[in-house]
Write a structure and sequence with these properties.
By secondary structure, the chain is α/β, with parallel strands linked by helices. The protein contains six helices and six strands. The protein has helices at residues 2-33, 66-80, 100-110, 127-136, 149-161, 180-199, and strands spanning 37-38, 49-53, 86-90, 118-121, 142-148, 165-171. The chain has a six-stranded parallel sheet with strand order 1-6-5-2-3-4, with helices on both faces. Helix 1 (2-33) packs across helix 5 and helix 4 (127-136) packs across helix 5.
Length: 214
């Protein structure tokens, strides 16, 4: 019984510590990234590259993913406003028949973005990977991240911690009902940012350098 009690209180203490870390992480990320993230493209500086963070085109059952559609629209808006010259689409292509970057590229082409302006990062398995690879593989030390506000906050925080002059352009969010599970995951994902930084996490893959715009 004593061992069970010790295990119980150990578990309770661990959960409390995780919650405290998560609350601190959310506050820190929200408070430090606000000046760099905008809803209006006119308020952003011009950058060579816009980095679109990947997500699946469809949800379970073949339902269109609003996060995906809205990120594409935001990328097109930013490109056509002249704030960026190239679009780097970064996402998961870990399976043969699942290719987030290619899906994004196809939609960008349909929206009138020229093929020469689009670059694919097929190893953006996580936001952390996408942010670091944009610098280490694609050579960008300043860029605009394109995603929903909550996602941009985490991405810009990671980027600026690693000395990347990153900004965020907010794609339209989805309804509270449709986005509830995503927001819950995001709340805890922010604690993972600090853990990754603490342990010196590296992207799953780096690889050969790719030059954008030459």
């Amino acid at each position: 019984m004593k061992i069970l009690k010790k295990l119980f209180w150990f578990g309770v203490t661990f959960v409390i510590l995780i919650l405290i870390l998560t609350i601190i992480a959310n506050y820190k990320i929200n408070s430090t990234t606000t000046p760099y993230i905008k809803d209006n493209a006119d308020e952003l500086p011009a950058c060579k590259v816009g980095l679109v963070l990947g997500t699946s085109k469809f949800l379970r059952g073949g339902v269109p993913n609003e996060y995906f559609d809205n990120r594409i629209k935001a990328a097109v808006e930013l490109y056509k406003s002249g704030k960026i010259k190239y679009i780097l689409v970064s996402g998961d292509n870990g399976k043969k028949y699942y290719n987030e970057p290619l899906d994004m590229k196809k939609e960008l082409l349909k929206s009138g973005i020229p093929d020469s302006a689009i670059y694919l990062d097929n190893a953006g398995f996580r936001t952390f990977d996408s942010i670091i690879r944009a610098k280490e593989v694609f050579g960008q030390t300043s860029y605009i991240v394109i995603s929903q506000n909550f996602h941009n906050q985490r991405a810009v925080y990671i980027a600026r911690y690693y000395n990347i002059e990153a900004y965020g352009y907010n794609a339209k969010d989805v309804s509270a009902y449709n986005g509830f599970r995503t927001k819950v995951r995001e709340f805890f994902a922010r604690a993972k940012v600090f853990i990754d930084i603490f342990i010196g996490k590296e992207p799953k893959y780096l690889g050969e350098k790719i030059t954008i715009g030459e």
